[in-house]
Amino acid sequence: MILLRTGESAMRALLATLLIPASIGVLAGACAAHDEDDATSDNGALIGGQVATTAQFPSNLYLKTGCTAAKVAPKKILTAAHCVFDPAMASVRFANGSTISVSRDPVNGFAEHKVKEVHVHPSWVTACEAQYCAASSVTALMDAADIALIELEDDIEYVPSAEIDTTELVPKTKVVIIGFGCTKGVLVRDDRPNPTLAYAIGEIAPPQLLDHPGSPIENDKEHEIAAGNYALTYGPASYRQQAGICPGDSGGPLYRDEDGKMKIVGVNSNYTFFPDQQDKLGLPVSNWHTRLDGNSRQHIAEWLQSLGALSNDSWTKGDGGAGAGKGADQAGTSDAGTSDAGAQGDAGH
């Protein structure tokens, strides 16, 4: 699904529809939007990031429909709601008993697995029944969680499960952004013959990152909703050498490295941009990742536990942290501009 920004010109909308894979995705660009010469690359890897291997991230999966995902428990795959929910029909794309094609390395082909049930968070279903939720500017204002769990009939035995960490993410926390998405910009043709996995080191940003020209977030209430449902990371249009999620990255896990063990702390979902005249490539200012902690607005940790997606000791009711408001104490000035890498966007420019 392509998410198009409200107010986008017809030509840009057409370009995005023709050139971007059929799903919101993740990981591209890595420098300020005005530095166009530095923001493009022909190396086939995440701009500002690095090529990732299956050995490094063995739980990551690519859905043939165009999204990134991760196995989090036997027979269970975590991804974004918009990757599996049809906004036109307001229904799940994969019926019980249907098949879904997945791969850890699309170059080597896909394996088909029978779907037992797709669980889309109820808040997303309700919001998308009330409005056509196929634009990033629309979904950014929805008080809903962009998260889904695909339950399979049989386990993908050769893929290990990644543990979900429901600890609250606070500004300046280092994270790993990852996905199979485009590598140059949301509005740049993705000419790779096959999706390739890439990752970048990012940093959790304060809600004030959303206060920029072109952002759909305009008041305190909208800040409260966004911060309660999503964790933010810096995109390449906000700091040089930061990465941005890009079509193909949607649904991918946001990792935190805990003593050498990668734990999932979010899900790639959305992004924001500067106005069209300032942004010819489609480089995110902010990357949005669905919160998984216990005190997120939609109580995602409790929902995941009810579906058997959490390890027994990973969460107890009341854990996590509430979404910081617009005036979060940790705001201040970030040192993200000196980070080694970054990521690029997913929700549709």
From TrEMBL:
<dbReference type="InterPro" id="IPR051333">
    <property type="entry name" value="CLIP_Serine_Protease"/>
</dbReference>
<feature type="region of interest" description="Disordered">
    <location>
        <begin position="318"/>
        <end position="349"/>
    </location>
</feature>
<feature type="signal peptide">
    <location>
        <begin position="1"/>
        <end position="28"/>
    </location>
</feature>
<dbReference type="InterPro" id="IPR009003">
    <property type="entry name" value="Peptidase_S1_PA"/>
</dbReference>
<dbReference type="GO" id="GO:0004252">
    <property type="term" value="F:serine-type endopeptidase activity"/>
</dbReference>
<feature type="domain" description="Peptidase S1">
    <location>
        <begin position="46"/>
        <end position="309"/>
    </location>
</feature>
<dbReference type="Pfam" id="PF00089">
    <property type="entry name" value="Trypsin"/>
</dbReference>
<keyword id="KW-0720">Serine protease</keyword>
<protein>
    <recommendedName>
        <fullName>Peptidase S1 domain-containing protein</fullName>
    </recommendedName>
</protein>
<keyword id="KW-0732">Signal</keyword>
<dbReference type="InterPro" id="IPR018114">
    <property type="entry name" value="TRYPSIN_HIS"/>
</dbReference>
<dbReference type="InterPro" id="IPR033116">
    <property type="entry name" value="TRYPSIN_SER"/>
</dbReference>
<dbReference type="GO" id="GO:0006508">
    <property type="term" value="P:proteolysis"/>
</dbReference>
<dbReference type="InterPro" id="IPR001254">
    <property type="entry name" value="Trypsin_dom"/>
</dbReference>
<keyword id="KW-0378">Hydrolase</keyword>
<dbReference type="InterPro" id="IPR001314">
    <property type="entry name" value="Peptidase_S1A"/>
</dbReference>
<keyword id="KW-1015">Disulfide bond</keyword>
<dbReference type="InterPro" id="IPR043504">
    <property type="entry name" value="Peptidase_S1_PA_chymotrypsin"/>
</dbReference>
<keyword id="KW-0645">Protease</keyword>
